[in-house]
Amino acid sequence: MCNLYRMTKGVDEVAHLFDVVAEAGANFAAEVYPGYRGLVVEGGRARAMTWGFPRPMKGKDGRPLKPKAVTNARDDKLGTAFWRDSFANRRCLIPVSAWAEAEGETGRMTRTWYTVPGEEMLGVAGLWRPSAEWGDVYTMVMVDACEAMVDVHDRMPVLLAREDWDRWQTASPEDALPLVRKWDLELLAERTDERWAGRAKSPLRDAPTLL
Fold this sequence. Notes:
The protein contains 4 helices and 16 strands.
């Protein structure tokens, strides 16, 4: 599961690497939390969207509540009603410099950052859709963690090799599905003393971040 990642490159750098057009004035955070604006590559563009699909919520009395943002899509749930249409028709790439997981004892957890050696930017498998609540939104696709990080968390983002970026976005669902697999190459872990609980407050309601 991923609830925090970095995107330290500008939109023009991202557009150049992914060979797409940069959205003028794209506004996104360098550290992206659920509900924040992040950069997404789709339809030949690098543009900003809100991180998290809105999930309708109701109170005990049946009245509608503020939606929750679902930031992670499980690989084994892509065929369910919540994700099916986006997986079939709106797959995207999420440029990521590094992603973080919480490590340590409950109440004293710190941030551990993961990157791929030799890569300044990663292409993470994502889904997107328009929403009435927050405009265009996106989510990360998650898979079982690889050996390099399974001691910290049992799930991780789907990392795509550069030669698979176009296939993920344009192939049929049947041809794209085999790309949803755990990373089998090296990862680098940077363990820090930064408290996980010190994260910035999301502008959206706290989320069930994996569905």
